[in-house]
Amino acid sequence: MSHLTPHRIALFACALLALAARPLAAQAFEHPGVLLSRAQLDFVKAEVKANVEPFKTQFQRAKDSEYGDLHYKPKGPPATSIIECGSSSHPNFGCKDEDADSAAAYVQALLWYITGNPAYAKNAIQILNAYQNLKAYTNSNAPLQSAWSGGKWTRAAEIIRYSNAGWAPADIQRFSDMLTKVVVPIIYDGSSYNGNWELTQIEAMMGIAVFTDNHDLFDHAVVFWKQRVPAYFYYQPIDGNQPAAPPRGVPPRGKSLWAGQTVFNATLNGMPQEACRDFHHSAYGLSATMAAAETAHIQGLKLYESEQPRLTAAMEFMSYYQLKNPVPQYLCGGSLKLATGSTFVIGYNEYHNRLGQPLPYTRQWIETGVLTNPLPTDIGAHTAVFETLTHIADAGARKPAAASPPPSDKHPQ
After folding, report:
1. How far is CA 186 from each of CA 141, 181, 343, 409, rounded to the nearest angstrom?
2. Exposure pattern of 11-39 as b/e (b: 16+ CB <10 Å)?
3. What distance, in Å, lies between the first and last C-alpha atoms of the chain?
4. Which portions of the chain are predicted below pLDDT 70?
5. Which candidate in 19, 159, 197, 316 could, as Cys together with 191 as Cys, close a disulfide (CB 3.0–4.6 Å)?
6. What is the residue-wise DSSP string for 220-285?
7. Nearest CA to 132 among 77, 85, 200?
8. Burial of 307: CB neighbours in 10 Å, binned 0-12, 13-18, 19+
9. Quick check: helix, strand or coil at residue 389?
10. CA-CA distance, 183 to 71, in Å (whole number)?
């Protein structure tokens, strides 16, 4: 059995754990079941109808955004049906157009479900159908571009398919084939680049798996999630004084996986692998992590719970510094590049609203830096799109046992 390398043994062990963790009820996927369950969609719809805040304001912002335009027309794909994306979208043949179109398909689908206005359904279907014959993604950013869009395409497609929106079965099949034949082969093996790439690919794989009822792909994504999350978010009580090694090797570019960070201790619990690069890419990684865990939650898996201490620490760590608290010299040389559009709302909904964890810094960041943002999406609307509308509260949440304590001025531990 010399062909069983340590890496393959680890993969096999994780696969067995994923299968063991899958409850019998999840043998048939829950639909709609990508990021939003029917119960959550109905809850949001009822809150908007009752003019409950912040749903009322977030709904209006979604309607007023470019993605919610009642007259939205698809910007892409290119006439070649090939999207070419280089590093930082240079070259950019259909990349930013697909970013906008996939976000718009999702927002239009949400607005259709909430309002019942068939014009929104028609818009979402028009966008989805425009990409059903996509042939390929090319150039260096193809694995990331296809993952960014794959996650949003399936959020939209699930809502439209399972809400009597009028999407023709033949078009559903063609769109499913595009996801399976064009997107999945690019993202299936993950990535050794910075961890936000693979986390985004994991989210996309999980969404595609649910939409196409592919249990093998879903289990594969779960294995990758369990491998990548501990390598992306440092947590001293488990990791010790060195972060876990990435599951698929170090990035082929750059001198240091952690961008030069050499100090690791309990004061840095939750630190993302890309924190010293910037908080924008770190937020992409955290957002994709939580979105994948939310889809898994709908399907009956407890990914959230399996990494609760690590991920709550990550939200508190990033929120603490997003609130512009002082940065110690031993963290990234005392300077951080903060992000715009980071919400952490999906994770907060799970860990605070459902499980009653206080998370004071995350709460303060959401109240002061997210709900006040007139367009709550990340830059490019890659992973975080109107999370304040869909997950600011939970359809089945229990009340926390005690009120959250006010944030202190101490460094998060």
Report:
1. 11, 9, 28, 45
2. beebbeebeebbeeebeebbbbbbbbbbe
3. 45
4. 1-26, 252-255, 398-413
5. 197
6. HHHHHHHHHHHHHB--HHHHTTSPPPPTT---SSSS-TTTT-----GGGTT-BTTTTT-HHHHHHH
7. 77
8. buried
9. helix
10. 28
Please count the CA atoms within 13 angstroms of the CA of 337 that sit on its side-chain side. Answer: 11
Strands 82-85 and 92-93: what pairing? antiparallel
Contact 141, 95 (CB under 8 A): yes
DSSP 8-state assignment for residue 382:
S
Q: Are strands 136-138 and 82-85 parallel, antiparallel or unpaired?
A: parallel
- Segment 213-261, tens digit of pLDDT: 999 999 999 999 999 999 999 999 999 999 999 999 887 665 578 999 9
DSSP string of 13-68, one letter each residue: HHHHHHHHHS-GGGGS--SS-SS--HHHHHHHHHHHHTT-TTHHHHHHHHHHSGGG
- Whether the Cβ atoms of residue 399 and residue 357 lie closer than 8 Å to each other: no
Residue 333 pLDDT: 97
Q: Give ∠ CA 384-390-393 in degrees, rounded to 5.
A: 115
C-alpha 359/C-alpha 266 separation (Å) is 17
Residue 263, amino acid? V
Instruction: Report the pLDDT value the prediction gives residue 36, as an integer from 0 to 100.
Output: 98
Give the span between the Cα atoms of 383 and 289, in whole angstroms. 10
Secondary structure (3-state) at 373: coil
Reading phi first (left if > 0) and then psi (alpha if -120 to 50, else beta), residue 391 is in alpha
pLDDT of residue 105: 98
pLDDT tens track for 290-349: 999 999 999 999 999 999 999 999 999 999 999 999 999 999 999 999 998 889 999 999
Torsion sign across C-alpha atoms 288, 365, 40, 109: negative
Q: Closest Cα to residue 296, out of 20, 15, 10, 22?
A: 22
Domain boundaries, the chain: 41-187, 218-413
Query: How many Å apart are CA 62 and CA 60, to the nearest integer?
Result: 5
| Coil, helix or strand at residue 82 | strand
Q: Give the whole-angstrom CA distance, residue 10 versus residue 230.
A: 14
pTM: 0.91
